[in-house]
Amino acid sequence: MVEDIPAFTRVTLLTGFLGSGKTTLLRRLLADPALKDTAVIINELGEVGIDHLLVERLDDQMVLLSSGCVCCTVRGELAATMRDLHSRRERGLVPPFRRLVIESTGLADPFPVLSTLKADPVLRHHFRAAGVVTTVDAVNGFGQLDRYIESVRQVAVADAIVLTKTDIAEEAVTARLAARLDAINPSASRLSAADAPLDADALLQAGGSGWFKAIAEPSMAMAAHAGVRAFSIIVDEPLDWTAFGVWLTMLLNRHGARILRVKGILALEGEQLPVAVHGVQHLVHAPTHLSRWPGEDHRSRLVFIVEGIEPDLIRRSFSIFNRLNMPVAA
Amino acid sequence: MCSLCGSLGGHEHWADAAAREGVYTRNADPIRRRRERADRVRLANRVLALYGMRLSDWQGTSFLLSTFTGKSEIVEDLGHLWPAAEKLSGRICDPLAPDFLEALDANHG
What we know:
- The complex is a heterodimer of chains A (330) and B (109).
- With 330 residues, chain A is of the alpha/beta class.
- Chain A has eleven helices and 15 strands.
- In chain A, the strands form two sheets. In chain A, strands 3-4-5-2-6-1-7-8-9 form a nine-stranded mixed beta sheet, with helices on both faces.
- In chain A, strand 12 and strand 13 form a beta hairpin.
- The radius of gyration of chain A is 21 Å and the shape is globular.
- The longest helix of chain B is centred in the middle third of the chain and has 19 residues, at 30-48.
- Chain A binds chain B through residues 119, 121, 124-125, 241-243, 245-247, 249-251, 253-255, 275, 277, 279, 284-289, 309, 313-314, 316-317, 320-321, 323-326, 328-329, and chain B through 5, 7-10, 12-15, 17, 22-26, 36, 39-40, 43-44, 46-47, 78-79, 81-83, 86, 92-96, 101, 104-109.
């Protein structure tokens, strides 16, 4: 059984504002056979009403569902729950799940969860962040984005946005909301919960293709939104990787809390293939080597989603650091 | 060991990722790794000089960060460099600060 366990279990964070349809989405996902190799950590078992799916109650906080999904509630610290799940899997006490979905509370900032994955001395060897899925309510989403910065942040860090309640919202309202979501986070892929069947696999693999599209077609005039704005930097010449590392680490050390997202596809000096970088606040994932460019355009492109930082300052800083490896002026 | 949190082993900074499938790193090949470390020290020093500090390689595994007045500290990677630099110099190392950018631009533009 142990050989069935992947080296790294991919973790998807499911977030969304209070009442945005997160639980309804979870209920659908839990019944979906596509989640047979998935463990789900939720806030409360009673909340999602899964009695009809129940195959076995493993203990008072963990159940096995007919879809094959292991479902458990968070107890105390999230890290402790994840360690327990991992330990039970190693001992063959639960099916060898290959991915994990974590439901966050409606007002939570997703960053601490992602940070736990990276910082915990046990978890970081077994789990990797796969992406953030955010539910946005088509009826009330507009107002929530106006009133609550938490709602804007949840949209800003998303890899995929699931629009819920589109069946009861007016089309014009949904269209306006979609435009607004684009302004806050042009890089996230968009799904509608009203679509049946919802492609659970695609949703949980979010973070793959959606942002390539945004980076391939960057909009230079993305609108400011409650202090949160998205902008891109495009560079014609190949970048110096070392200078880029010095710059980004220095930037995130001082301003990480306000850099909600940074994603980029880079043409590096001395490299034929592009390199993708991907970060949420202070946390940057290991850069990945891509097997090809997503389109004809082979220029380096970075998309930032920032809160309360002037894009021109970041652009200027980037451009000066990008010349760091040039000979020193006499 | 992580010099900030004291936890043992396994910490990986994104700019120093361990070589594995799909990950971009310059750590896979020993010569490239050493060259990258040397470049990193050289470029970081262009920035650190403006704060009265310098960086040097320490046994190919860590870096030694020193102020021009002689205070020093071992740092593991780029992630630890900037908090350590701020602590050691007592200054804020802000890559967006207009004065700092002007000085850096004047030196290397």
